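This entry is retained here.
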Amino acid sequence: MALFKFTKAILNGDQIDVYNHGDMSRDFTYIDDLVNGMRLLADAIPSVEYRPNAYEYAEDSLSKVAPFRVVNIGNSEPAKLLDFIAAIEKSIGIEALKNFMPMQAGDVPATWADTSLLEMLTGYAPVTDVATGAKLFANWYREYYEV
């Protein structure tokens, strides 16, 4: 969501709100990596029969009463918000007009996905870094919206 919102605002010459004065980190995951993770999970459907050895992994959310899991899909590596914004700026060749703001109530300075269970179940590994993802998205955005 941030990639779309920031790209659109920068191309329109609008300010972007940068919370916590930019001292934030997030797990930005490129759409192709997200789709690949979901595709891999579609082939990793758990059996409904009880499997005692499946419970040996502390990070596995498999239940004895429900064979389904909660699985994180992400990049597994937080990126600094200002580096993310810089990657967008470089990709589109325009410097963002930044409105530095304090931390929003209820927000946290850093979040990222632990994809160890997904990797264990499917072999998932993201392949798109932030700079590459920003460039691919910016190219798509400009073509799609004819900007």
Observations:
- The first strand starts at residue 15 and ends at 18.
- Residues 105 and 128 are 31 Å apart (CA to CA).
- Residues 130-144 form the longest helix (15 residues).
